[in-house]
From TrEMBL:
Name of the protein: Probable membrane transporter protein
PANTHER family linked to this entry: MEMBRANE TRANSPORTER PROTEIN MJ0441-RELATED, MEMBRANE TRANSPORTER PROTEIN YTNM-RELATED
Ranges annotated as spanning the membrane: 72-91, 98-116, 136-159, 180-198, 204-225, 232-249, 261-281
Low complexity bias (residue ranges): 290-314
Topological type in the membrane: Multi-pass membrane protein
Subcellular location, record wording: Cell membrane; Membrane
Family (UniProt): Belongs to the 4-toluene sulfonate uptake permease (TSUP) (TC 2.A.102) family.
Signal peptide as annotated in the record: none
Length: 326
């Protein structure tokens, strides 16, 4: 029972992060399952079965708060489902540990780009509102779906930064659309694992625990993403990607850094991430104050101090009308 309660709490926390940042549910949940010696395929299958419910609840909540672009959901979700099914059947008979450092390096690069772009320049404004092309969303969905199924997570870390980097959608709508389209990915991946593994290798008690925790957090996360300023949200997403994938690279066979070096790197990344978020918050508050200042100045100029002058002007106008009429 204690393990099931812990899994429910993990599902709650993972969905809270995933729903507000557009990533990390699969990564967090799969990491826990692997830590208790669950096989990679079984861990990914368990998480994706739970995600059928959590992504449905998350998508409904994001739709309720106006965070979903259904055209993007369709164009990225259908190829994502195809990639997820292929990835699930592939993982059922093959480990993908060797590919993890390559993908982490790509994601780390995207994370650095996003962190710098949103922290220094803020929310892109030049192209926001322009449509995203099928030739961009289709391949993105296919790759992200395959990575998500084979890695136990990755739909958000691949899809969210790629669409954010295009600068054509607000961060909250990117996150809402990615979270909603993940329902298709979760269904397809689950079918692939059931075909490749069969149902006997899946603990449905764990699935239910993760599902309950995730569904409880879904509406809170969808509300939260509307309240967090886009600039701050972009910095937070970039930092999350850097920290997550930097950890993977440091522990990979490529680097295999000592424990002390790894934790020193984590501390540096965390400090830079925190500084970036604080800077983004300050810049957001400063820009909001600048935006509201002209209106305040106008209100002040038209306030009580100018009332006598306005009254005098009205009186003079009325007197002139009387003279002209006589």
């Amino acid at each position: 029972m204690r393990k099931l309660i812990m899994l429910a709490l993990v599902g709650f926390g993972a969905q809270l992060v995933d729903g507000s940042l557009g990533m990390a549910y699969g990564v967090t949940s799969t990491t826990l399952l692997l830590a208790i010696n669950t096989s990679a395929a079984s861990a990914s299958a368990t998480v994706h079965l739970a995600e059928i419910g959590t992504t449905l609840a998350s998508g409904a909540a994001h739709w309720r708060f106006g965070n979903v672009d259904w055209r993007v959901v369709r164009r990225v979700g259908v190829p994502g489902a195809i990639g997820a099914f292929l990835g699930a059947t592939f993982l059922s008979g093959l480990s993908t540990a060797a590919a993890a450092p390559v993908m982490s390096l790509i994601l780390l690069t995207l994370g650095c780009y996003l962190l710098v772009r949103f922290t220094v320049a803020g929310l892109p404004t030049g192209r926001v509102g322009l449509p995203l092309r099928k030739r961009f969303l289709g391949p993105l969905g296919l790759v992200a779906g395959f990575v998500d199924a084979t890695g136990g997570g990755g739909w958000g870390p691949v899809g969210t930064p790629a669409i954010l980097a295009s600068g054509r959608m607000e961060p909250r709508r990117v996150i809402g659309s990615i979270d909603t389209s993940e329902f298709l990915v979760a269904v397809a991946a689950s079918l692939g694992f059931l075909v490749g593994l069969g149902s006997e290798n899946i603990d449905y008690g764990w699935v239910l625990a993760l599902l309950i925790g995730g569904m409880a957090a879904a509406p809170i996360a969808a509300w939260l993403v509307r309240k967090v300023p886009p600039r701050v949200l972009g910095s937070a997403v970039g930092g999350m990607i850097i920290l997550t994938n930097g950890r993977t690279l440091l522990r990979s066979e490529w680097i295999d850094a000592p424990t002390g070096v790894r934790y020193a790197c984590y501390a540096v990344v965390a400090a830079l991430w925190a500084a970036a978020v604080v800077w983004s918050v300050r810049q957001h508050l400063a820009s909001r104050q600048t935006t509201t200042s002209p209106a305040t100045a106008t209100d002040t100029a038209s306030g009580p101090d100018t009332a006598p002058a306005a009254s005098a002007t009205t009186e003079r106008s009325g007197l002139a009308d009387e003279v002209s009429s006589t």
